[in-house]
């Protein structure tokens, strides 16, 4: 399957998760080293992996909770393709736990926190692009300044050489004149 954007792929898998009876979780991504944009994303079941207990490391836990993780492998991997589309490159359908039947138990829509995270992520992405553009402009400006200072140095060098020649001519005229 292909999608127009990463968000479209997330919305598709989130809707699929709701219909099947599990909660979608954004698991990991791979970014471009050049500009930091996301090139691939892994989305899966919220019961993926296992909870690592941090009890005792940060003092006593007031209300110990049961782990929601069960090592589930269900997931999709979407990748930004050369065509400009997001393509599913891997799909694992099987869950190792019972799925939620009652729709009220499954998350129906993105809550306010998820929406805020999505907005801030988009804003951060835009700021990074803007920063990269400013950096390119600054580098171009610095190259222009370097070129001009080289040309200016050559002109100053020529003026100094001309002055030395005129000083020699002036001294010869004073001596012979």
TrEMBL record:
It holds the Pfam family FAR1. Residues 12-100 form the FAR1 domain. InterPro entries: FAR1_DNA_bnd_dom. Residues 110-137 form a coiled coil. Keywords: Coiled coil. It comes from the Eukaryota. This is FAR1 domain-containing protein.
């Amino acid at each position: 399957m292909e999608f127009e954007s990463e968000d479209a792929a997330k919305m598709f898998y989130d809707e699929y998760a709701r219909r099947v009876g599990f909660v979608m979780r954004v698991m990991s991504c791979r970014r471009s080293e050049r500009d930091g944009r996301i090139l691939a994303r892994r989305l899966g079941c919220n019961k993926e992996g296992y909870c690592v207990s941090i009890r005792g490391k940060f003092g006593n836990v007031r209300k110990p909770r049961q782990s929601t993780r069960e090592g589930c492998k269900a997931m999709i991997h979407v990748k930004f393709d050369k065509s400009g589309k997001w393509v599913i490159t891997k799909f694992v359908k099987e869950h190792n736990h019972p799925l939620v039947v009652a729709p009220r138990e499954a998350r129906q829509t993105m809550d306010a926190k998820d929406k805020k995270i999505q907005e801030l992520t988009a804003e951060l992405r835009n700021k990074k692009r803007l920063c990269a553009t400013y950096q390119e402009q600054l580098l171009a400006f610095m190259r222009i300044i370097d070129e001009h200072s080289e040309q200016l140095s050559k002109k100053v060098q020529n003026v100094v050489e001309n002055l030395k020649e005129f000083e020699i001519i002036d001294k010869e005229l004073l001596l012979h004149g």
